[in-house]
Specification:
This protein is α+β, with helices and mostly antiparallel strands and about 425 residues long. The protein has 12 helices and 14 strands. Helix 1 packs across helix 10, helix 2 packs across helix 10 and helix 10 runs antiparallel to helix 11. The chain starts with a helix and ends with a helix.
């Protein structure tokens, strides 16, 4: 044990005796580790922020709107407009075995909302009571729509957070009334704020019963259809079934509107499951790239330490010869230089990890904008850095240590 303390003491004195050389060597590795962890942490923050953005829509939500199909089978030059209907929604529920839930929506953005205090223009949506099972719509005050609201065509409304702020400006909203294009509605609930930052699109939306919307504010510019809807939102029974659910919905809509379901251009849709998967693959590829760059940086740092330790061996040749003449074994000489290289490498790495953790802690209280979460220290990346540093330390210390141990005492003492 005293010998071990002597070796560590000698290591520290040697590094302190060559402060500039030691600092520059350590800085290279510390900077590599710091950059690796910070870049991966920023990427994970971006991934987390995007996931939260999708979570505000709902879990595995899929959207399909009215679209344009070939006017003649097989033709892609002449297109005709078709409009989704309530029948499409019912057929999807009945026939699509991979679909777990679906909801028709009538949506209009040309309806003016007026309270006793202010007026606002946002999106009014007519939905069924079960719509909040598909979409993420947390209630702040009051209640959500229920089945009786739809069955009795009640004139009730649930306000999005931004619509509530605009129409009532800090005053109680639940129990009050507003006018929608002159028709009086009672506010029965308000929603919590969804998302963060300046993106208020979701928070400007308001919701009324589907039957009430169909009677007072049906879709406009949709031809002569009586049960036309704006879109259908649906969920697969499981995430793995999202592609099967999409194809089943395509078949139902294509059959009902008389066109070929195999033509993807005939459908105007958004599969959030597919989007999330694609974004995840981008982040995975980015993490692999950054990890590879970090490992290369650590490798270059290890080469730098090998070089520095070889210089140290050359500078201390006479010292090595003297120690061996006094009885030092090859193992003790080798261990001395191995400890110096490994200690320098590991100390540099932990300085880089500590610096990255400190910067991330500072950034944790800073808003980086919509879709970005503060960077976070990724445990697996830190473990990878520590393991890589351990390997680099062994390599950086072992080769110069072996060179030192193999020096012959007489030859070493004769070196000038």
């Amino acid at each position: 044990m005293p010998l071990l303390f002597d070796i560590f003491g000698q290591t520290l004195r040697t590094l302190w005796g060559h402060k500039l050389r030691s600092f520059l060597t350590m800085f290279g590795i510390a900077w590599g580790v710091f950059s690796l962890l910070l870049l991966v942490g920023l990427g994970e923050g971006f991934r987390s922020g995007n996931k939260k953005q999708f979570d505000t829509l709902g879990e595995n939500v899929m959207f399909i709107w009215s679209g344009r199909a070939p006017a003649v089978q097989g033709s892609f030059t002449a297109l005709r407009q078709y409009y989704l209907t309530y029948r499409d929604y019912l057929d999807i529920l009945r026939e699509c075995t991979s679909v777990g839930a679906a909801a028709p929506v009538i949506s209009r953005s040309d309806i003016r909302a007026v309270s006793d205090f202010y007026q606002a223009s946002g999106q009014i949506n007519g939905v069924l009571a079960m719509f909040n099972q598909i979409r993420y719509l947390p209630i702040q005050n009051g209640r959500w729509l229920d089945a009786m609201d739809d069955a009795q065509k009640r004139r009730v409304i649930v306000l999005g957070d931004e619509a509530r702020r605009t129409l009532f400006s800090g005053r109680p909203a639940v129990g009050s009334t507003i006018l929608l294009n002159g028709v009086r509605f009672e506010v029965v609930g308000t929603l919590q704020r969804i998302g963060h930052g300046d993106n208020n699109n979701q928070n400007l939306k308001c919701f009324i019963p589907y039957s009430t919307m169909h009677e007072y504010f049906p879709p406009i510019n949709v031809g002569e259809g009586q049960d036309v809807i704006s879109l259908i939102e649906y969920q697969p029974k499981s995430r793995a079934l999202h592609e099967a659910a999409r194809l089943e919905v395509h078949k139902v809509i294509a059959r009902n509107h008389g066109f070929d379901a195999s033509n993807p251009d005939s459908f105007d849709e958004w599969d959030t499951v597919n989007t999330v998967d694609q974004v995840g693959k981008i982040f995975d590829a980015m993490n692999v790239f950054l990890g590879s760059v970090g490992l290369v940086t650590l490798g270059l740092g290890a080469i730098g330490i090998i070089n520095i330790m070889l210089v140290a061996v050359a500078d201390r040749t006479q010292e090595i010869g003297l120690r061996k003449a006094l009885g030092a074994t090859n193992a003790s000489i080798m261990f001395q230089f191995f400890v110096e290289g490994a200690f320098l490498t590991m100390l540099s790495g932990f300085v880089g990890i500590a610096a990255a953790a400190g910067v991330m802690a500072i950034l944790s209280g800073v808003s980086l904008g919509e879709g970005f979460d503060p960077p976070k220290l990724v445990a697996r990346t830190a473990v990878l850095a520590v393991v890589s540093l351990g390997v680099a330390g062994v390599v950086a210390g072992l080769y110069p240590a072996r060179r030192a141990a193999l020096l012959q005492p007489v030859e070493a003492l004769r070196k000038e």
